[in-house]
């Protein structure tokens, strides 16, 4: 048998992909949230990728609806946050979809948050704390350093599931990582003015973003994680932050703006409606999402 | 800039080294998952007298008891045994005639590793007839099951048996299944090894981002044999104390024998010998703005039952049952409900259910019930509900039922079925 170099193999494969219909070889990927659909798309652009949620839906509160069962039934793998973000709906889908490839502990079950170190991991959790995630904050996609680790793990996993295209996934990872590293340092340069700024935010959805940018979330509109803002809690916040150098009140596209607007009105601090994931404000990929978020935050600094 | 670059490198090194293999799940917690549901309440009502004289399972058909109750408080354990098998056990508290019994509602094993979209479940489980039947009652939006469920299947039909189902590899959700049961629970009363069968199909999909739907069809076929009745129905006017089931059964036979002098037929569920076929259609439609269920949503659902009864009514005479009245007729019934959630804390709903029994039971009277409910959710895990029911389940009854209920879940966060 003639030995063919890996590069040639990859070339042949790439050629094959062009000749055959892309669907015939492509992975079928079920993403729980748009950020994972976008990341999967960077690594496997030919794959058939479906996102179970949009940027305008609270990922904690999703219906395990029939269409999602049907999608998961046909998936080769899922890419979800894990760390209990989807605990209210993903297990129901796994149970109903009758797809052995996407059971927990199978290669087709990819939990992004479990690939990285998570913040706020709890040793013990009681419901008195609200709807907290004992495994730590699952909203990991807004830290570019963690995203890179996740991308590497995901490319590796794709290669295991679909070894024929392993080289292809690795090449896509390489290209993505190079662009991502460059963008990350650009963003870090751009966001210097944000360092040390204080914000009030709705939920801990931006925990990793703030950690990365050295922004401090001094208060939460939620009295406890998962509980909607109450007037008594907001009144308390008002006293707490009055006169403080607050950059603004942050909330995301899937959250009700009323509480943030009320607090803004009372304090004069601006509301900062921040994109949360891909698809928000027309962002088409992860690069655009980060760009958009940074622009929104910088805009708040400039108007202050 | 430099500092950041270093931190990226360090972070990558640390995280990269720590990156585990895929032997993990998205959930924390113990093995097995333990969850307890506290379901307690208080109801003001007059005594339950039956539903249009239909042959019912009285203890599961009456709705909430008068006064304080803890009905359907449940304890469940579940976990995967291994890559292939998943198991679950659910016990519930049930109150009957002021006695509290523990009922084993589920004890099943289900495959997780079969190919081609197939799965098998075996043991005791809730049948996949209709929309509500396979769900635990504490997840319902109302205090009790709709009148049609209470009358025809004793609020829910569960039994010992096996299910094979298949999910089609299509964009539209299609699930086909077949179930075979012992027929040992109401509405079945069989003496053969497979005394009840169910063939069902479920379909569903989305309409844009904001709407989703599911529809189902089921054909449940049950056998009924004199003397095999496992339910507590004994006609509608016998009051009796009993110490346990077995004695109860005996009491019951004596009493029926005795009663016969002044009642020709009471149409008790246990007095029937023959077949009953249940044809059930269900539909549910849900809406939330942009598909975001956090703040606002609307759920409309409805189910229709057509029950074909073919057999004999009879009584026991000196240990022998006798066929006395030929019965070949049908009942039907339905309900519709709507529940609107307008904030994370509040939702309200309305429901109407009506039954059209065969003439032999109610001589044309159609039992009906109308419900209004209001839910307050302090958190995702606790609900306080008030419900008003206009109960017209018997011809001479017009009862106003008021209930207040608390439902809370402890332990493992159960996933919510659609």
From TrEMBL, chain A:
Transmembrane segments: none annotated. InterPro entries: Bact_metal-bind_prot9 (IPR050492), ZnuA-like (IPR006127). Gene3D superfamilies: Nitrogenase molybdenum iron protein domain. Pfam families: ZnuA. Keywords: Signal. The keyword Protein biosynthesis does not apply. Residues 1-26 form the signal peptide. The keyword DNA damage does not apply. PANTHER family: ADHESION PROTEIN (PTHR42953:SF2), HIGH-AFFINITY ZINC UPTAKE SYSTEM PROTEIN ZNUA-RELATED (PTHR42953). This is Metal ABC transporter solute-binding protein, Zn/Mn family.
Automatic annotation (TrEMBL), chain B:
It comes from the Bacteria. Residues 230-260 are annotated as: Disordered. Keywords: Signal. It comes from Corallincola platygyrae. This is Zinc-regulated TonB-dependent outer membrane receptor. Residues 1-23 form the signal peptide. InterPro entries: Porin_dom_sf (IPR023614).
């Amino acid at each position: 048998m003639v030995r063919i170099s890996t590069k040639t193999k990859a070339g042949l494969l790439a050629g094959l992909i062009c000749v055959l219909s892309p669907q015939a070889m492509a992975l079928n990927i079920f993403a729980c949230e748009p950020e994972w659909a976008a990341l999967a798309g960077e690594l496997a652009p030919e794959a058939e990728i479906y996102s179970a949620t949009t940027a305008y839906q609270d990922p904690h509160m999703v219906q395990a609806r029939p269409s999602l069962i049907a999608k998961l039934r046909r998936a080769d793998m899922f890419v979800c946050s894990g760390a209990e973000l989807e605990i209210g709906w993903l297990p129901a889908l796994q149970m109903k979809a009758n797809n052995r490839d996407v059971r927990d502990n199978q290669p087709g079950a990819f939990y992004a948050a479990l690939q990285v170190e998570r913040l706020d991991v709890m040793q013990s959790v009681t419901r008195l704390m609200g709807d907290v995630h004992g495994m730590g904050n699952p909203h990991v996609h807004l830290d570019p350093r963690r995203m890179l680790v996740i991308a590497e793990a995901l490319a590796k996993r794709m290669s295991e599931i679909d070894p024929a295209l392993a080289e292809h996934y690795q090449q896509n990872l390489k290209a993505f990582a190079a662009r991502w590293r460059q963008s990350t340092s650009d963003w870090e340069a751009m966001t210097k003015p944000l360092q040390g700024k204080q914000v009030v935010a709705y939920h801990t959805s931006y925990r990793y973003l703030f950690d990365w940018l050295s922004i401090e979330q001094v208060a939460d509109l939620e009295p406890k994680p998962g509980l909607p803002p109450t007037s008594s809690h907001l009144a308390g916040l008002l006293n707490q932050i009055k006169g403080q150098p607050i950059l603004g009140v942050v909330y995301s596209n899937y959250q009700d703006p009323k509480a943030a607007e009320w607090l803004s009105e009372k304090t004069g601090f601006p509301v900062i409606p921040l994109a949360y994931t891909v698809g928000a404000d027309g962002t088409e990929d992860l690069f655009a999402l980060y760009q958009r978020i940074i622009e929104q935050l910088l805009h708040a600094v400039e108007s202050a | 800039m430099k500092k950041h670059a270093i931190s990226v490198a360090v972070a990558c090194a640390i995280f990269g080294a720590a990156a585990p293999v895929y032997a993990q799940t998205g959930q924390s917690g113990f093995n097995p998952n333990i969850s307890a549901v506290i379901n307690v309440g208080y109801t003001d009502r007059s005594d339950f007298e039956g539903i249009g004289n239909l042959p019912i399972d009285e203890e599961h058909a009456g709705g909430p008891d008068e006064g304080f109750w803890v009905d359907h408080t449940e304890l469940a354990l579940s976990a995967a045994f291994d890559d292939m098998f998943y198991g679950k056990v659910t016990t519930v508290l049930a109150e009957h005639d002021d006695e509290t019994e523990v009922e084993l509602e589920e004890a099943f094993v289900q495959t997780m590793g079969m190919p081609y979209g197939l799965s098998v479940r075996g043991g005791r489980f809730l049948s996949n007839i209709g929309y509500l039947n396979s769900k635990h009652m504490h997840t319902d939006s109302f205090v009790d099951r709709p009148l049609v469920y209470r009358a025809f299947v004793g609020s829910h039909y569960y039994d010992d048996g096996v299910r094979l189902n298949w999910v089609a590899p299509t964009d539209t959700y299609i699930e086909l299944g077949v179930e075979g049961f012992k027929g040992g629970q109401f509405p079945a009363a069989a003496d053969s090894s497979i005394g009840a069968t169910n063939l069902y199909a479920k379909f569903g999909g989305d309409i844009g981002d904001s709407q989703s739907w599911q529809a189902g069809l089921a054909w449940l076929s049950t056998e009924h044999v004199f003397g095999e009745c496992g339910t507590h129905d004994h006609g509608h006017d016998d009051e009796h104390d009993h110490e346990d089931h077995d004695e109860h059964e005996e009491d019951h036979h004596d009493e029926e024998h005795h009663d016969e002098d002044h009642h020709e037929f009471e149409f008790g569920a246990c007095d029937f010998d023959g077949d009953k076929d249940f044809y059930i259609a269900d539909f549910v439609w849900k809406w939330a703005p942009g598909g975001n269920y956090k703040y606002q949503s609307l759920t409309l659902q409805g189910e229709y039952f057509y029950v074909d009864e073919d057999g004999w009514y009879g009584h026991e005479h000196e240990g022998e049952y006798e066929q006395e009245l030929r019965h070949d007729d049908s009942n039907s019934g339905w309900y519709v409900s709507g529940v609107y959630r307008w904030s994370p804390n509040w939702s309200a709903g309305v429901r109407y259910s009506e039954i059209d029994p065969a003439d032999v039971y109610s001589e044309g009277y159609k039992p009906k019930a109308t419900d209004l409910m209001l839910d307050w959710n302090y958190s995702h895990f606790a609900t306080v509900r008030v419900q008003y029911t206009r109960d017209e389940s018997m011809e001479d009854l017009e009862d106003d039922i008021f209930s207040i209920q608390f439902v809370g879940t402890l332990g493992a966060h159960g996933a919510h079925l659609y």
